[in-house]
Structures are given as structure tokens and as C-alpha cells.
Amino acid sequence: MTSARRPADRTIRYQHIADELRARVEGGEYLAGRLLPSEAELSQQYQASRVTIRRALEALRAEGLVSSRQGFGWFVATDPLRQSLGRLGTIEAQLAALGFESERQILGFAFVPAPAKVIAVLGVDVVLEIKRLNLARRSVADKKSAGDPFARITVWCPEHLGARLSRRQVEASPLYELIDVPLGGATQTIGASAASASDAGLLAIPVGSPVLVCERVTRDREGKAVLFSEHVFPGHLTEFSVELPYAEASMAPSGLRLVE
């Protein structure tokens, strides 16, 4: 008699776990885009097998409540924030256009010897190095939350341009608004990488999980490089879009470069 009830018992168990996880998501314990505990952690929490946990998560995925990606595990389902590459702008302006609120956390603000790659771009030996974490808040209802980690950004600015800037200023306003230089445009290179231990900790993602790394060289109206920046985005939260004009079949794809 007992063995005959086991399949039904297992079914009830996974449904019960799915109901509890749904309530935790809907109650705000896990916000949109946030990672859920791993299957192993949930298995321990609920004293259930990995098979049962996965079945509960798959039931929630069928409802559109959670999703999963290789290298990330399970997270609360959300549409990636789409950034347009059509014109030069700040992350804050892009997020505001999409209806999100943003916040900066300054992680580092110091004049340092320029790294080799920065010297190659800016042609200076000393730079103001600004490290920050950008957070995105998804709705007015999330006012109590500091927001989701959206990007780790490091900007290098020539010493003579950064000399009058303060930590408080760069925390309050985009650097584009602070440097006294008319901007002419930028070149941005985007590639895929794996999250380092430090970036994983800042962005609340697993070490080695997919990230998008953008390097941007911003130039003045005379074409001289005035800023060099590196932006690291969690792969499950970000996508980029660009309008492509029609090209003749013989033309090479614009912007395509093979990494050596």
C-alpha cells in the first residue's frame, strides 16, 4: 500500500516546493533578475532530492516565473535591459528611457599610474581612475531596495581633466557632464567573457558566468581620446541593439572584427 502512494507523494512534494518558491518570489524575497539558490542549496533547504527540486523549478519556468541559463543557474525571469548603440549616451540615460531608476556606488577614486592599455589609448602616464557599480531599480515600488547590480564600470580620465573633479561629483553626475570638453563621439568594442571573482561578487553572479565586456574610447570634437572605460554587464540582464542599414552583398559587415 505504501509503495503505491509514493509516485503521488513525490508529485505533491514538488508541487509544494514550487508553491513555496512562488510565494517567496511574489513576496519580494527574490526580485526580477536575481539569482535563486542553487539546486544543491534548495535541495538542502527543502530536504528533497535534486530531481524533485528541478521538477519544481521547471514547473515555475513553465509559468514564466523563473528562467535558467548555462553558467548562471536559475533566476527570477526578467526581460534583458536593451541598450541601443545608435548614439553616444550614458547608462543612466539609457535606463531612464526604459523607465528604470539608476544609482551609482563609487568603489574607487584615485590618481594612479596609467595601465599600459590606457597609455596606448590616452597617451598619458597618470590618470584619474574611477571605479563604480551601477544599480538599476525596476519600479517605483522597489524604493526600499538599492536596486540590482547592473554594471561594473572603470573609467580612466587624463590627470589634467580630472584634477577638478571630486568623488562626490562623480557619484552624483555622469562624467560626460563633468569634464569640460565638447564630445565628438566614441568607439565601443563589445566581447564575451567569464566573470572574475571580484566582478562576480559585485554583480551577484557566479564566478565564471557569462558577462559582456565593453571597452569604450570617447573622443573630443577634434578626434582626440579623452576617456577610456571598461563596462562589465551580467550576460542575463543585458543585450545591445543597433540599426543596420542595408548593405550590398559585396560589402563587409560593419564593425565586425575577429579576435586574435
Q: Which key terms come to mind for this protein?
A:
single chain; 260 residues; alpha+beta; Arc Repressor Mutant, subunit A; Chorismate lyase; 6-stranded antiparallel beta sheet; two-stranded antiparallel ribbon; 9 helices; 10 strands; 31% helix; elongated
Q: Could you characterize what this model shows?
A:
The protein is α+β, with helices and mostly antiparallel strands and 260 residues long. The protein folds into two domains: 2-76, Orthogonal Bundle (Arc Repressor Mutant, subunit A); 81-241, Chorismate lyase, CATH 3.40.1410.10. Helices cover 31% and strands 33% of the residues. A six-stranded antiparallel sheet has the order 4-5-6-9-8-7. The model is unreliable at 1-5 (pLDDT under 50).
Query: Globular, elongated, flat, extended or rod-shaped: what is the shape?
Result: elongated
Structural class: alpha+beta
**Count the strands?**
10
Please mark out the parts with pLDDT under 50 across 5 or more consecutive residues, or reply none.
1-5
Give the strand order, joined by hyphens, for the main sheet: 4-5-6-9-8-7
Radius of gyration: 23 Å
CATH level-3 fold name of the largest domain: Chorismate lyase
Report the major sheet.
Answer: 6 strands, antiparallel
Mean pLDDT comes to 82
Order of helices and strands: HHHEEEHEHEEHHHEHEEE
Q: Number of helical segments?
A: 9
